[in-house]
Write a structure and sequence with these properties.
678 residues, 7 helices
């Protein structure tokens, strides 16, 4: 039996000569605004005061920073933040008298710079308050209460959920509506496992009244037994209990937080919160020890959209094709992270702020956690046994910095991580947990099923609906500057001829620089391919263009037909990678107004202009995700399922940038054997 031991690592990394990389401390005191800082609690309150002074009975659907021009931000950064920051302005999207208004508010002069009425298709994000009001209205609706009684259920044990309805070819201006669907508690808190099928209440959000009611069929409501996920509700038998484990940093964290600016090891970046995107990473740069300079990598990165279409065409399900960022808001749905469970013991937490329905500022506590991760991973190693009489082993443990947020959009919990590595890589990971969207059925065994049921029978009377998760990232890479190009490197088989070798074949690389947007639409899986963003004006000493490459994660391609209405709205998923020239207004791949949109303001539409992208300031849009076929292990709560990708330096450095990184100092428990380093 092997002896058990724990080795704690003091995160005392190689310290560069620059003072900004010294041992960390956390500074949350008053600081000068970074141009990309999210709006503060006081600024949000000022926005509300300015708007409501001249506009009454108005609802706030989005309030965020009106981002300064990129050139302005870069100019400010180039002066090492000594210059006065650009003026602070807010973008406000609001509803007033059944119209959508776009306000630009100058926070310095306390004035409204512009007020435009939007007249196109689509509507702003749903607010939490109007969803709550629509649900309450439906629950109090007399015909609904009669339908619940008819099923032998209790109204007081019923919960309503507002579902965005999408668009299915309707002409002209449509009403801004939701369909309220229902689930039953009565013996469990896992409300999503007890759907009440057949009842739909359609609510006009602007008038806040029921405009349609359907009670189409009655289906057995799944049982509550075995669905409660709370620890207190679990009954024996239990699995083996693990012994205690923790992360200890006796000298504190190795990163610093100044306002929203985070510095760790060789990385320096800005972290912001947005009620639509959630977390936004900005102006990420890395310190090159050999060149003794800070080098730019990423100007702006965030999840632009999260498209979740369900594969059920029945009346109560066909419209369940969700755009979680554009309809519900990943930031709006961000949850307080739980110390010691959502994040390890060495985590530092950060709050976020947003506006409520009436413009009142709302504090989102512990919306981010930041921590150094060491889980026994290896950064690099080699054992040389080929030298006679010698055995040389060198190993460096891999310690990274993680920024985490969790967004719970209805039934699903999305665990969103940005991980910064000392090697210069950025890993982006999304974990899915929470509940499946399930459907009630009369079936209790798969042998009874002889029709299309659009899902998997998970338990008696319970079908897990098939669906997709498409996560599209906005990645404005600025590799050593903002003039970049997109290079596709094809791996191509070559046949050996003329008997020059016993080999019959090999593969080589053929690189192609995309000139226009049409040359940069990539579908993975067709041919071996490496994708790089390079700086055409910067080369290494041996002549390679400096760059970063995309190492993709799980590949997902849409299986819906191009003319299907959800796919028209989600046309940005047709390709895994798109490249566009930077445009400040192009932020949301599903359009600025996604709710009930018609697909006329998507990434697919923007790229029809086929703009030049070679040697330009370019943006990469990358989609990662899953086709989700449910299995019984996903019931009643789904263990985390993850995917992700990596942005990896490729000829960015002259050589291995972590060759000289010293391993952390080991702190050994008395029960741990000392390793032999002779």
């Amino acid at each position: 039996m092997a002896s058990a031991c724990n080795t704690l690592l003091l995160l005392s990394f190689f310290v560069f000569s620059l003072s900004i990389f010294s041992t960390a401390s956390i500074h949350n005191h008053h600081h000068h605004h970074h141009p990309l800082d999210p709006l503060s609690l006081h600024e949000l309150d000022r926005v509300r005061t300015i708007i409501t002074a001249s506009h009454h009975n108005i609802s706030f659907h989005y309030v965020g920073l009106d981002e300064p021009d990129k050139s302005t931000v870069l100019s400010w950064l180039s002066r090492h933040t000594a210059a006065k920051p650009p003026p602070r302005r807010a973008l406000v999207i609001a509803r007033l008298n059944r119209q959508t208004h776009e306000f630009i508010v100058d926070l310095t002069t306390r004035t409204i710079d512009s007020d435009k009425v939007y007249g196109g298709s689509g509507y702003p994000m749903l607010t939490y308050e109007e969803q709550t009001a629509a649900n309450a209205l439906a629950l109090s609706y007399a015909p609904f209460r009669a339908s619940v009684s008819k099923r032998g259920l209790k109204v007081e044990e019923t919960v309503g959920f507002s579902y965005a309805v999408g668009w299915y070819g309707e002409e002209g201006r449509s009403r801004r509506i939701v369909r309220v669907m229902f689930c039953c508690l009565d013996g469990t808190v896992n409300v999503f496992m007890r759907p009440i099928e057949g009842i739909t209440v359609t609510v006009d959000l602007d008038e806040m009244k029921v405009i349609e009611y359907r009670d189409r069929l009655m289906v057995t409501v799944p049982k509550a037994d075995g669905t409660d996920y709370r620890e207190s509700a679990q009954k024996p038998p239990f699995g083996s209990l693990l012994k205690g484990i923790t992360v200890v940093q006796p000298d504190g964290p190795s990163f610093t937080v100044h306002g929203h600016q985070i510095r760790w090891a060789n990385w320096d970046f800005h972290l912001g919160f947005d009620m639509r995107a959630g977390g936004i990473i900005s102006v990420a740069s890395i310190y090159d020890v050999e060149q003794q300079e800070q080098r730019r990598v990423l100007y702006r990165g965030y999840i632009s959209e999260l498209f979740v279409p369900y594969m059920d065409v029945t009346e109560e399900w066909y419209f369940r094709t969700f755009f979680d960022a554009g309809e519900y808001g990943l930031g709006l749905c961000a949850m307080p992270l739980q110390p010691l469970t959502d994040c390890p013991q060495n985590a530092v937490f950060m709050d976020g702020y947003m506006s409520g329905h009436n413009g009142t500022p709302v504090k989102k506590t512990n919306v981010f956690c930041i921590f150094e991760r060491y889980a026994g991973d290896i950064m690099w190693r080699h054992t040389e046994a080929g030298i006679p009489g010698k055995l040389i082993t060198e190993v460096r443990p891999d310690v990274s910095l993680v920024v985490r947020m969790v967004s719970t959009v209805g039934n699903y919990d999305y665990i969103i991580d940005w991980e910064f590595l000392q090697s210069g890589s950025i890993k982006l990971t999304v974990g899915l947990s929470g509940m499946l969207e399930v459907k009630g059925t009369e079936y209790i065994h798969v042998d009874q099923i002889n029709e299309e049921v659009y899902g998997t029978l998970l338990a008696e009377n319970t079908l897990g609906g098939r669906h997709d998760h498409f996560l599209t990232y906005h990645l404005d890479l600025d590799v050593d500057g903002d003039v970049n190009s997109f290079v596709k490197t094809h791996l191509q088989k070559k046949v050996v001829s003329n008997n020059i070798s016993p080999r019959r074949s090999y593969w080589t690389v053929i690189s192609e620089t995309a000139e226009k947007e049409s040359n940069a639409k990539i579908q993975f899986g067709l041919k071996p391919l490496e994708l790089l963003v390079v700086n055409p004006n910067k080369k290494t000493k041996v002549g390679n263009y400096v760059g970063y490459r995309l190492i993709p994660g799980s590949t997902i391609d849409p299986l819906l037909s191009d003319d299907d209405f959800p796919q028209r709205r989600g046309a940005f998923t047709k390709y895994n990678v798109w490249i566009t020239p930077y445009n400040k207004s192009e932020k949301w791949v599903g359009g600025l107004y996604t709710s009930q949109s018609r697909g006329d303001d998507t990434l697919a539409q923007w790229t029809l202009r086929d703009r030049e992208i070679e040697g330009k300031d370019i943006v990469m849009w990358y989609t990662v995700g899953f086709h989700h076929v449910p299995y019984q292990e996903d019931f009643p709560l789904m263990p985390r399922m993850s995917t992700g990708f990596e942005l990896r330096p490729s000829n960015f450095f002259e050589s291995n940038p972590v060759l000289k990184v010293k391993p952390p100092t080991q702190v050994n428990w008395s029960s741990c054997p000392t390793s032999n380093t002779d």
